[in-house]
Each structure stands twice: as C-alpha cells, then as structure tokens.
Write a structure and sequence with these properties.
With about 375 residues, this protein is α/β, with parallel strands linked by helices. The protein is built from 17 helices and twelve strands. The chain has two domains: about 200 residues, 3-Layer(aba) Sandwich (Rossmann fold), CATH 3.40.50; about 180 residues, N-(1-d-carboxylethyl)-l-norvaline Dehydrogenase, domain 2.
Length: about 375
Amino acid sequence: MKALHFGAGNIGRGFIGKLLADAHIELVFADVNQAVLDALNSRKSYNVNVVGEQASVEPVTNVSAVNSTGQDAINLIAEVDLMTTAVGPTVLEKIAPNVAKGLVLRHQQGNTKPLNIIACENMVRGTSQFKQHVFNALPEEEKAWVEANVGFVDSAVDRIVPPAAAGSTDILEVTVETFSEWIVDKTQFKGPLPQIAGMEPTDNLMAFVERKLFTLNTGHAITAYLGQQGGHATIRDAILDEKVRLVVRGAMNESGDVLIKRYGFDASKHAAYIEKILSRFENPYLHDDVERVGRQPLRKLGAGDRLVKPLLGTLEYNLPYANLVIGIAAAMRYRSEQDPQAQEWVALLEELGPKAALAQVSGLPVDGDVVAEAVSVYEKMH
C-alpha cells in the first residue's frame, strides 16, 4: 500500500505520518519546505520523541518527499491508495487545485482502484470541506468519476505536538505526547477499510469530533487565554494555577453536559476523559507556549469552533455556561505580536467596540445575554 501525506510539519511527521509508516505503508510526504524535503529524501527516516511516563525514541523509516506544488505530487495522486493531510485548515483550499489535477490524471490513466482521502485537521468535518474545494477545482465532466472512485473520509484527530525544543538542530526531529486518537468515519470509505493500527473506524463520527472539540480544544484554548491573563508562559504552568484550572474544568464540565445530552455519553466515563485531558495539559515533558495554543482568536471565537459551539449547545439544552463565558472573555483579551489574527482582532475591537466585535466574529446576537455577559467579564480583566 502506498500513501501520500500533505504536510511534513510536526503533526504530519509526529502523528499521521508516523502511524502510516508504522503500518508498513510506503509513505511520501508532500510539502513546500525545501529543507525538510531534502532532509527526508536524503535520510529516508527520522526520529519521533514520545514523551510522558514512559519516554521513548521511535524511528520512522521508508519515507520520501515531493514538493506539494509540483508535478510529482500530481503524479502520485494518480497512483496512491491513500491520501492524508495535516496542513492546517486554511491551507486545504490552496492544495485543492493540485489534488484535483491528480484526480483527473488518475481518471485519464484508467486507475479505478479506490482512493481514500482523509484530512486530519483540527476542524469539524474537515474532509467534507476539503472535498468542496477539490470539486470547485474539478472540471464538470470529471465530478461523477471522482464521486464514484474516491472516498472523502472525515476524521477526528487528537495528539498534542508542541514545537521543537529550543536548541534542537535536527530539522526532522519531532516531539509528541504518548496519547493519540485518530477516529475516521467508516461510512465514507471506498473499498475495504485500510488496516492501520491507531486509526479507529466509527459510524458515529460527530459524537467523537464534538467530544474532542468540546473537551480537548475548549480546555486547551481556555487554559492558554487565562494563562496569558495570569502571566504564565506555558500550558503546564497555566493549568497548575488553581484559579485557571477551576475555570477550565468548569468549562469542560459545561461542554460535557451538552455532549451527554446530545450523544448519550456515559457521565462517569466522560468525567474520566476530562481528568485525562487535564493530566495531559500538565505533562512536564511538553513545553507548549500559551501564546502558540491561543493563536488565531478570530477562528477560535467562530460559531463552529471550540468556545462558541459548546456554548450554543448549553443554550439549546438550557444548561449553565458561566465558565465558557469566562473563556470567551479571556480569548477577547488574547494578544500576540506574532499572530496576524490577533492583530486583526485588536483592530476590530478598536473599530467596533467589544460588543459588536464579538457579535460579528461569533455570530451571537449583539444584544443577547451571552454577549453582554462576556463583555462584562472582559471589561473586568486587565
């Protein structure tokens, strides 16, 4: 079996690429970073540092790489059995035209072996959104063939992959936590499901997508935003601050009540899942900056994302949401010189004022209770 993986960054190499290579799949990375491509092609391998109670160094072998913007990537799409991505939600649209060209070539070459495409991104139904971008780039007469022969498989991914440690000189070395979860929608595959250890098929993907979004992502973001407010540099420092931890756990309990109502999750098992996530934030081997985790506040304050979406669930089921509101207010206070979205957010705040700015980004009613409560908390924060 052969796979093409778009995105040779830390998540691509440390998580999805590693699982594919561990399953003895011939793996080619596609990326635009020439230094990374050269290193992968000259060494054909790299090391992953898995950190936690039982730390280990795990080699990934039998890999190569191509430039994602070139003809080589297009040629590979015409022949591989599996295509995955870990490029970030905003980059999917950029790679779609080349993917469309590869699918057209696959058709021209008469390759009717099923191809499954899985976008492993931090977003809800990311592959379905990617499919739209690909179809926008496909000629009209190719769409029926692609629909019949290519599976676009949604997934939920979860693994904390911090940036490389300062002082690390190896461009390919990557550090990951022990925990990983890759859940795929088995109803969307074409042909038999590939057997990949660590890839879990389900026919109820949204339950797991929202469980991760409402727990890990919600908790992580609020830890970052309150951590920055409290003068903490890392996620670990922030979550060890009792005041921060109280709100983070409270927010995850609020979003958890939505999940229990919506999907029938077992309350005691979900409580254990929350505790597991809090312990992951505490991992002393993961040096994850609050500023990095908090970046892209405009996206994170959106209606379908980790702060507002669970809050909308609390409104739907008439459940408490006080801690989620504190998280939203803290996100409004996030500042970063390195993050263009943080700059955009500050400009929007100055132009519209906090009430109208939050309503515009989140889709919440400008004169509703939630916006008023969030702005009230925001104004008390300094």
